[in-house]
Amino acid sequence: MKKLLLLSILSIFSITILIAQEKTGPTTEMFEKIKAEKISFFTEKLSLTPSEAQAFWPVYNEFEKKRFDIQRQIHEFEHIPEDKVNSLSDSEIDQITNNYVSSFEKEAMLLKEYNKQFLKVLPKKKVLMMYRTENQFRGHLIREYKRGQKKD
Asked: Can you give the residue ranges of every domain in the chain?
């Protein structure tokens, strides 16, 4: 459970960085660059064969899109303006907090569902390494972001 929470926090942090950059930079170009870098990073770290890559990437991309949608909902909740929060009724707060918790449950169920699919297209050891590689890639993105900040 702690690992899932840590994964969620890191994912949200990564998305927050991307969204913050989105306001100041060319979004399509930035996302395409990150996507290409991710493909290269994962392919190298997982030692994907061409046939594994062909089976893996469509499944992973679908998973990532669905996860991004859930994380966007979480991000929207976390950025409700304070003045709006102060004017919410108790029932509205109940609904919002229940939706917030539900988003994490959805993300966990999504991970569980796609874990089965990943195990169908990759050897078990590579699926395990894929989860580690996701965290390594997030760390890589954060380091690159910090390097970019130092240059500016």
From this structure: 2-18+27-151
Where in 10-125 does DSSP place strands (E)? none
pTM for this prediction: 0.73
Reading the chain (152 residues) residue by residue, the pLDDT tens digits are: 545 444 444 455 455 555 554 455 558 888 898 899 999 999 999 999 999 999 999 999 999 999 999 999 999 988 888 888 889 999 999 999 999 999 999 999 999 999 999 999 999 999 999 999 999 999 998 888 888 877 76
Q: What is the DSSP string of 19-57?
A: HHHHTTS-HHHHHHHHHHHHHHHHHHHHT--HHHHHHHH
In angstroms, rounded to a whole number, what is the distance separating the alpha carbons of residues 44 and 2?
28
Helix, strand, coil percentages, rounded to 5, for the chain: 90, 0, 10
